[in-house]
Specification:
It is elongated and about 150 Å long. It is built from eleven helices and 33 strands. It folds into five domains: 100 residues, Sandwich (Immunoglobulin-like), CATH 2.60.40; 109 residues, Immunoglobulin-like (Sandwich); 99 residues, Sandwich (Immunoglobulin-like), CATH 2.60.40.10; 93 residues, Immunoglobulins (Immunoglobulin-like, Sandwich), CATH 2.60.40; 80 residues, no CATH class. The longest helix has 37 residues. The protein starts with a helix and ends with a strand. It is 19% helix and 31% strand. It is of the alpha+beta class and 619 residues long.
């Protein structure tokens, strides 16, 4: 009994033993790729039933490139994949495997993630400043790991929620605010208000995390002075502030903020004008301002279609309009050559050149789809390229030309390339393009050339053989159809053809006629003709009277024939006398065919039965 229990315990312990001891290392579980504020982190759970001595290896890839090494021999359960080659608009996939000594588990892939569309945007930083019965809300965007928040999400807006303390169920909302400073007006004095802000973008459908709740109390000190100021100044509006140009190549957009507390219940519009700076410096001629946007409700104005010269210097100005009242003009000096951002190359293509790679770069484009080199003659390109393998370091190369050959590359190896546009005068640098990868080529081995040559020869031989065989079969088919080997007999041709010399049978025109012309035809074998030599009956001696001798001679002939029913010669043993040789040549017919019945009278003997064949006699 004890032996049975011991065997059961040993079996159970073997079955419950961790898989690593059985030689099969389990894979990590719950592998997922996450992104917060444009970072890229791969996380996973350890395999079930294994020891704590495991290390992990991670890799990642994009939608156009193969896997690249991320973290190697780490014991933690996450890996930060951020590196200089990660782009804000890239689509990435990660994978991880466990390692224990020389054993490795199978790879486990994660989900796909597109950074700018699926990253979790953090909460903005909010601060409050009390100004009498108003509270000014200042908002700072979250810090991104890659680039800046406004470079990634240009059209981001804020949703502001505020309420009296302990009355959140009666909260008020302000949506789609693009400026980062907002004044909450018409608040109750000596009252504590709480504010919370959330960011909403067009590219990322998920709103950001809500900011922490910030509270501030109002006063009434500035409120009285404000009334005095309004009484003295009248209906003058507050001017716009924080004029910022958003530019890329020759695309220009002017944005600004405005204090909403001065709008009261009237709709506010804005007017934007511009003029060349040199006209303002002229003392003889009054400057003529051109209107770019007139009484627009948006807090931005597109200047792209105005045709501003890239090397010109302009003065921009904006004012607010409400209920027939106007604010003061706010001006900004703008020089595209100095202030406009430079965009990356429009297109980058790779082509193999033996063991090297040719990089074809298309210039950045203006708003009219012309090259930016027309405006920036000293523009050049900064190229990063690296081997797509473990622990590879990027190499740098600068060139002013649009076609660059990357030298000293390994044959039959994958390389990735990124390109950046640069201009030295104002030290302008664009963002890098997305990585593009391509495999180099090299000299083809002689055995591969021989194999290709032999394969082509075999293919050509088989094709020619097939063509010859097909031609022969076609020839045989055509010949058998139009010139058959079995020809009709002459009497059939005479009957079927229209004329005696014609080779073409006539067609049957009616079913009844075909029935009349057709009949059953029975073909019989030609009857057998027995062949004998004719002789003179007078020279034949009478047969012996002794029936026994006749019978014996007859039987001897039958026995000598071995069952054959052919023609027999009597020779010397026959009682018939030998004929003279001169008698064989007499008569006009030396040889002729006769029937057995016609020769019997001359033989003066019994008639031979049918199975005794033919008698060969001399005449």
């Amino acid at each position: 009994m004890s032996a049975t229990i011991t065997a059961f315990v040993l079996t159970l312990s073997t079955l419950c033993r961790p898989t690593e001891l059985l030689g099969i290392l389990s894979s990590p579980t719950n592998v997922h790729l996450t992104s917060d504020n444009m970072n890229l982190v791969l996380r996973w759970n350890p395999p079930k039933g294994v020891s704590n001595n495991l290390v992990y290896r991670t890799e990642y890839r994009t939608s156009i490139t193969p896997y690249t090494v991320g973290c190697v021999n780490i014991s933690t359960l996450e890996c930060d994949l951020i590196n200089p080659f990660i782009t804000e608009s890239g689509k990435y996939t990660g994978r991880v495997r466990a390692q224990l000594g020389s054993e490795s588990s199978a790879w486990v892939e994660s989900n796909n993630i597109t950074l700018d569309k699926e990253t979790i945007i953090g909460s903005p930083n909010v601060s409050l400043l009390s100004n009498g019965a108003n509270i000014e809300v200042s908002i700072k965007d979250p810090v991104m790991v890659i680039s800046t928040f406004r470079n990634i999400y240009i059209h981001a807006a804020y949703n502001i929620t505020y309420w009296k303390e302990s009355q959140k169920d009666k909260a008020k909302h302000i949506s789609n605010i693009q400026q980062n400073r907002v004044v909450l007006a018409d608040l109750e004095p000596w009252t504590k208000y709480c504010v919370q802000v959330q960011i909403k973008t067009q590219r990322n459908l998920n709103p950001s995390m809500s900011s922490r709740t910030v509270c501030e109390s109002t006063t009434n000190e500035i409120h009285c002075s404000a009334v005095t100021t309004l009484a003295a100044v009248g209906p003058e509006l507050a001017p716009p502030k924080d004029l910022i140009p958003i530019t890329l190549n020759t695309n220009y957009t002017l944005t600004w903020n405005w204090d909403q507390s001065h709008a009261e219940s009237h709709a506010v519009t804005f007017t934007t004008q511009y003029v060349g700076k040199f006209k303002l410096e002229s003392k003889k001629i009054s400057p003529n301002w051109s209107t770019a946007c007139e009484e627009m409700s948006d807090r931005s104005c597109d200047l792209t279609m105005l045709g501003l010269h890239y090397l010109g210097i302009y003065v921009l100005r904006v004012r607010a309009n409400a209920n027939g009242n106007h604010s003061k003009w706010v001006q900004l000096e703008f020089c595209p050559d100095k202030d406009a951002a430079l965009g990356p190359p429009a297109k980058v293509d790779l082509a193999p050149a033996g063991s090297d790679l040719d990089v074809f770069i298309s210039d950045p484009l203006t708003s009219t789809n012309t090259s930016m080199r027309e405006n920036l003659s000293e523009m050049y390109y900064h190229i990063l390229y690296w081997e797509h393998s473990e622990d590879s370091k990027a190499k740098e190369l600068s060139s002013k030309t649009n076609m660059v050959t990357l030298p000293d590359l390994k044959a039959w190896t994958w390389y990735c390339v990124r390109v950046q546009s640069c201009n030295k005068f104002y030290d302008k640098r664009s963002n890098f393009t997305s990585p593009q990868c391509l495999q180099t080529q090299g000299n083809i081995p002689w055995w591969q050339i021989s194999l290709y040559f032999a394969g082509s020869l075999v293919t050509c031989f088989l094709v020619m053989l097939l063509l010859i065989y097909s031609s022969f079969r076609c020839y045989k088919t055509v010949k058998a159809t139009f010139y058959p080997s079995d020809q009709l007999s002459t009497h059939f041709k005479e009957y079927l053809c229209d004329s005696r010399g014609s080779e073409i049978p006539r067609l049957l025109t009616a079913v009844s006629e075909s029935e009349l012309l057709c009949d059953n035809l029975v073909i019989c074998d030609q009857p057998t003709v027995l062949e004998i030599h004719n002789f003179c009956p007078d020279d034949v001696a009478a047969p012996p009277s002794d029936p026994e001798s006749d019978t014996s001679g007859r039987h001897s002939r039958q026995n000598s024939s071995s069952g054959d029913s052919g023609v027999y010669s009597t020779g010397g043993s026959s009682n018939l006398p030998q004929l003279n040789s001169s008698q064989t040549s007499t008569g006009t017919e030396d040889l002729e065919q006769v029937k057995m019945k016609e020769m019997t009278p001359g033989l003066k003997s019994k008639l031979l039965t049918a199975d005794e064949g033919i008698v060969d006699m001399c005449v």
